[in-house]
Design goal:
The protein has 285 residues and is mainly α. The chain has eleven helices and three strands, in the order αββααααααααβαα. The chain has one domain: MetI-like fold, CATH 1.10.3720.10. It is globular and about 70 Å long.
């Protein structure tokens, strides 16, 4: 049994290493096959040998930032309500419903962001906004991320011992004071973990951005405005793999591996930073 478990663990590690090596080798091949100046231009357009890195990277930052503005307050407020204020019977019903929301297909939220969020929210804020915007994609990704952040945060808050709440109440603190000054600081490591998971989920989302931001094409102009069409790393990868004679092989296809390596590095750095922070602030009861 020990040998079988060890073999399984080593096999998983081997697969992970092979995936990373394949990304590295193909990314190096991509860099050797282009001019470095191609990585700094005005658009991401593989059919025209335009591989401007800042176009998908800045798009990813915009979409992720908007998603976190939407998801963090709502998700954290939902977690606090379920953990600190909801009655047991209410929590019993709401928690499974919240977790079921996380199972909504992203393509559904993509169409929702395109057909409802864009005309009713984005274009109300900016009437000149086109039909595909990074803002609509960010709101859609934020809605998709809310259940994940809420569920993980609620688990972290529920793990705080009731003795801390009782001690605070015994000193005369109100429930809201106990929540803000006792419960949340005690659960900060779990809340940070929920935030990092949400950010990683937002960065890795594909279909919502593919549909709502206009990232489904093989050409995207660089922009720093959330009210413009654009693309992100994952949507650019999805567009590159679309059936096309000009994109099915060669440098254009290898650019997919290069973007995948960048996405892997970004996610890895986020997790390393979060792990270091959690280790420093974690309190064991």
């Amino acid at each position: 049994m020990r040998n079988g478990l060890r073999t399984t663990a080593l096999f998983s590690l081997l697969v992970s290493i092979l995936i990373v090596l394949s990304l590295v080798f193909e990314a190096v091949t991509f860099l050797n096959g282009i001019k470095i100046s191609w990585l700094w231009g005005d658009q991401w357009a593989p059919p025209f040998n335009e591989y401007d890195l800042k176009t998908p990277l800045v798009g990813s930052l915009i979409v992720t930032g908007i998603a976190m503005v939407v998801a963090v307050p709502i998700g954290l407020a939902s977690a606090i309500y379920l953990s600190e204020y909801a009655k047991p019977i209410t929590r019993k019903w709401l928690k499974p419903v919240l977790e079921i929301l996380a199972g909504i297909p992203s393509v559904v939220l993509g169409f929702f962001a395109l057909r409802w969020v864009t005309p009713n929210i984005v274009q109300q804020i900016n009437p000149q906004a086109p039909g595909f915007t990074l803002a609509a994609a960010g709101i859609g990704v934020g809605i998709l991320t809310i259940p994940l952040i809420a569920s993980v945060s609620e688990d972290a808050l529920s793990a705080v011992p009731n003795s801390l709440r009782e001690a605070s109440s015994g000193l005369g603190a109100k429930r809201v004071t106990t929540t803000i000054k006792i419960t949340i600081p005690a659960a900060i490591s779990g809340l940070v973990a929920a935030l990092i998971i949400g950010i990683s989920r937002a960065i890795g989302e594909t279909m919502v951005v593919f549909l709502a931001a206009g990232g489904g094409g093989n050409q995207a102009q660089f922009t720093t405005s959330a009210f413009d069409s654009g693309t992100v790393v994952t949507a650019a990868m999805a567009a590159t793999t679309a059936p096309s004679d000009r994109l099915s092989e060669g440098v254009a296809l290898q650019s997919l591996y290069f973007l995948g390596l960048l996405l892997f590095i970004i996610t890895l750095l986020l997790n390393l930073i979060a792990d270091r922070f959690v280790r420093r602030v974690r309190i064991i009861y």
